[in-house]
Amino acid sequence: MNKIAVIDYGMGNLRSVEKAIEHVSGRSEVIVTCDPGVVRGADRVVFPGQGAMPDCIRELEARGLHAAVLEAAASKPFLGICIGQQMLFDHSEEGNVPGLGVFRGEVRRFPEALMFAADGARLKVPHMGWNEVRQQGAHVLWDGIPDDARFYFVHSYYVDPAERAIVAATTDYGLPFTSAVARANIFAVQFHPEKSAEAGLQLLSNFIRWQPSR
Amino acid sequence: MLAKRIIPCLDVNAGRVVKGVNFVELRDAGDPVEVAKRYDEQGADEITFLDITASSDDRDIILHVVEQVAEQVFIPLTVGGGVRTVDDVRRLLNAGADKVSINTAAVNNPRVVADASGKVGSQCIVVAIDAKQTSPGKWQVFTHGGRNNTGLDAIEWAQTVASLGAGEILLTSMDRDGTKIGFDLGLTRAVSDAVRIPVIASGGVGTLEHLAEGVSEGRADAVLAASIFHFGQHTVREAKELMRARGIEVRL
Known about the structure:
The structure holds 2 protein chains of 2 kinds. Chain A is 25% helix and 34% strand. By secondary structure, chain A is of the alpha/beta class.
C-alpha cells in the first residue's frame, strides 16, 4: 500500500490537492494530516501551500511539523507545491523570513520594473492563469507531459535557486523564472498541478509512481 | 506567455444550473457537475458558479454543488453570490472552491475584503463590481442587479478593493449585461489600466468576436460569458480558436 501524506498546517484549502491525488492514485491511500507521526510513516509526502509564506512557516513551527518535513524531504518522494516549493529555500523577500533551507536560494517578488509584455502592456501581479512550463532536461515527473505544456499558476513570488542544476523547468512572465526544481527525491513546482487539468493530473500520477534513485 | 482566460459562468439555483436547459449535447443539462465537466473538456480555463438561490434555507446547497464539482473537475472554480462574511468565504473554500467572489458585502463593509484576503490569501478573493455608465468616461458602482446606485466611482472602487487585498476583479457592465452587443470596452480598459491585479470582463457577450475585443481593446486578463456557451451557440474551443486567430495567446 502506497501511503501519501498531504501535509496540513492550517493554511488554506487542501481539498483540491487531496481530490486530485485521489483521482489518479488507484490503490494509494491519501491522508491529509497535521500529525508529524503520520508524515513520518508515509511512503510519499505532498507539501502544498497557499497564502503568505511567513504565515506558512509560522504555522509549520506551531504545529511541530518542521522536523518531520525536513526528514521527509531528505528521505522519501516529496512533492512541493506553490508556497510548499518556496518554503524549501533559504529565505523569502515576502516578510523577510528564513525558509527551511533545503535548497540554496532566495524567494523573490516579481519586480515591478520588468512587468511588461512584449507589446508594452503591463503584466499583472499576481501571475494568475495558464502559462507554459519549459522543461529543463528529462525527469520521471515530466513523463507524458509535452514540453511547454500549460499549467495553472497563481503567485506573486518565485524561487531563484543559487544552484542552476536543480532547475527542472522555467516559465516566462516579465522575466524567465524557475517554475520547477528537482533534486534526488524532491520535486517541487510553483504551479498548481491539482488545478491544471490533464497535464496536472499526469504530473501527480507520475509522482505516485516515482521511485527516485538515491 | 501567459494565456488569456475564458471563463464560462453558470447560474445555480437550488443546486441546478438554470441557464443550461437548451444545451442539447448534455444528458442532464441542469446538473452543475455535468455542465462543468463539459466545459472542462472543451478547454475552459476556469469555471465560475453564481449562486442565485433566493431562499436562505437553500443557501448550503451550493456547498454540496462545489464539493461534487471539485471531486471531478480539476481546473479552478470560483463561486459567488450571497457571500457576506469571512466565514462564508471559508466554507466555500473548504468545500473545494479556489476563489470566492464578493460583491454587495464589499460595498456595505469593505473590511470584509481585507479580513478575507488576510485570512485566506488575496489569490482566493475576487471582488465583483457591477458598473453603469453615468456620464461619458464615468461609471458608478451599482448593487442589487443595477437598481441601487452606491455613488462609488467604479475606477476608484476598483483601486480601493485592490489595495484592500482583492486578488482579482470581476467587472460587469450593467448597461451591457444581457444585451449581446459586446463588452463595455471603455469601462473594461479604464479599470484594467487602473489596477495591477487581473481583471475579468463580463456583460454583453453575443459573439466570439466580442470575447477577442474584451482582451485586445478592453485589455482584460480574462473574459467571462454565459449564454453563448450555454445555449450551444459556441463551444469554448471555438472561442479560443477565434481568439488565437486574432493573435491572442490562449491555452488550446
